[in-house]
Amino acid sequence: MKQISISLDDNSKEKIVEALKRYSPNEIGGILIGNKVSEDYIIVNDVSISNESGLFNFASFIRDTVKAQKLLNEHYKNSTGFYVGEWHSHPSFSLNPSGKDIITMKGIIQDKNYNASFAILIIVKLNLEKELESKGFLFHKEIKEYICLE
Questions:
Q1: What are the E-state strand segments in the chain?
Q2: Helix H or strand E segment including 17
Q3: pLDDT per residue over 3-45, tens digit each?
Q4: Which of 77, 126, 139, 141 is the most buried (most CB within 10 A)?
């Protein structure tokens, strides 16, 4: 499988950094919305912040699908992006997917409601200088585990 690169635009980075500052030391996350710039490069131009249910703690959060779906529908309607995947923070853990993260992402690409052959997971945290650190992972129907992204 070809190597894929992904980046967050400034708007998406700003939304994530603000969420990390606001909800730290708890985990927080949401969906990624973006566009293919080329066959092997995706840029994320918007993210949802799953804060509406208040169901989060230092090691987990629950994404409320209503808010995420509303944002996604807006992008579909305006042709400004499509579902790319998920993001969430690991404020107290490494930026590698947990066993639960892997199960969740594999479930997404197998769920007919998502209609996705792939999904990207970006795990984030703020470093000691309050700068964003992130790692991306590609989950695809044709691969057994996942691929680390550039």
A1: 5-8, 29-38, 41-47, 56-57, 60-61, 82-89, 118-126, 132-140, 147-148
A2: helix 10-23
A3: 789 999 999 999 999 999 988 888 899 999 999 999 889 999 9
A4: 139
pLDDT digits (tens, 9 = 90+) for 37-50: 998 899 999 999 88
Q: Are 146 and 139 in contact (CB under 8 A)?
A: yes
Which residue type is seen at 108?
A: I
- For 104-117, how does the pLDDT look when each residue is reduced to its tens digit (9 = 90+)? 999 999 999 888 89
Q: DSSP letters along 63-97, please?
A: --HHHHHHHHHHHHHHTS-EEEEEEEE-TTS-SSP
| CA pair distance 1, 126, nearest whole angstrom | 31
Classified as helix, coil or strand, 10 is: helix
- pTM score: 0.90
What are 47's strand-pairing partners? 32
- Distance of CA 49 to CAs 35, 40, 80, 113, 128, Å? 19, 26, 18, 21, 22
Both tokens assigned to 12: 């998406």
The DSSP code for 98 is P
Residues 36 and 61 sit within 8 Å (Cβ to Cβ) = no
